[in-house]
Automatic annotation (TrEMBL):
InterPro entries: Bact_OuterMem_StrucFunc (IPR050330), OMP_bac (IPR006664), OmpA-like (IPR006665), OmpA-like_sf (IPR036737). Keywords: Cell outer membrane, Membrane. GO terms for cellular component: cell outer membrane. This is OmpA-like domain-containing protein. It comes from bioreactor metagenome. Residues 149-266 form the OmpA-like domain.
Length: 272
């Protein structure tokens, strides 16, 4: 390990901007070993309810003019799961995504739901429907791939980071794109490449910088794939649509990136 000291980093941030000056007061760890730089992936099999959503069909059973409010009360077993109140007084349907009121999470087992509609009149009387049992089935992402046949995979990559005010990929970014992005491009792929910047500097300059960064990645994909993909959109949004907060130096660092979205048919992406 070698320690060096310098007034400013080798690639400094804007020295005329207060945010840039703060960024320049930093310690940098520089290493040539790919095992240190390479991204770490955490893969898991997600479990989702099937079907994706529940559509409630409702009738009041009394004159609509005397209805003050309605709600749907949902339970799983003996436990309250969700209470839906934003269903209006006359709407015939409501689409729900199964999530719990408190945690916002999906269920993790196959316990059935029970749903019941409550209608409150303007005089304060409450009418209720018969409870309806809703069975559910948990489906893993792998099972869903098998079930959907020619469905599509959607992949997002924000691994490509650029030095301040630069659109040059550099050896680390080249390795990231080669190991993680190029191999996921197929003839059925629709690709969206979006360049980003932080908020340091002039807006117009940053928009053009983000466009150059996106073009760098586009050129790499074009070259490595030989143009064998379905479509590719390329754009630069500058400091707009930040992926991370610009209030912290780390956030600004991660916003100097290109975001790549790849959507391919499952048969192409899985090789099946």
């Amino acid at each position: 390990m070698k320690l060096t000291y310098r007034d400013i980093p080798a690639t400094p941030s804007n020295r005329k901007d207060t945010l840039g000056m703060k960024e320049n007061r930093r310690v940098e760890l520089i290493c040539s070993e790919w095992e240190v730089y390479k991204p770490i992936f955490d893969k898991e099999v997600a479990k989702l309810p099937q079907p994706d959503e529940m559509t409630f069909k409702m009738t009041n059973g009394i004159e609509d003019a005397i209805v003050a409010s309605r709600k749907i009360v949902i339970k799983r077993g003996d436990d309250d799961w969700a209470t839906i109140t934003d269903i209006g007084t006359t709407n015939p349907t409501y689409v729900w995504d199964w999530t719990n009121d408190e945690t916002g999470k999906y269920p993790t087992d196959n316990v059935a739901y029970t749903a019941q509609l409550f209608v409150t009149t303007k005089s304060g009387a409450v009418c209720s429907s018969d409870p309806v049992e809703i069975p559910t089935l948990q489906v893993s992402t792998q099972e869903r791939i098998i079930a959907t046949g020619e469905g599509k995979t959607k992949e997002d990559y924000s691994l490509i980071l650029f030095p301040f005010n630069s659109a040059e990929a550099g050896p680390v970014n080249e390795r990231v794109m080669r190991d993680y992005v190029y191999g996921r491009v197929f003839q059925t792929s629709d690709i969206v490449v979006t360049g980003h910047t932080d908020i340091v500097g002039l807006f117009d300059h940053n928009v053009k910088l983000s466009e150059r960064r996106a073009t760098t990645v586009k050129n790499g994909i074009q070259k490595q794939s030989g143009g064998k993909f379905k479509s590719m959109q390329v754009k630069g949004v500058g400091p707009e649509q930040p992926l991370y907060t610009n209030d912290m130096p780390e956030g600004r660092f991660y916003n100097r990136t290109v975001h790549v979205q790849i959507e391919s048919t499952i048969s192409s992406a899985t090789g099946e």
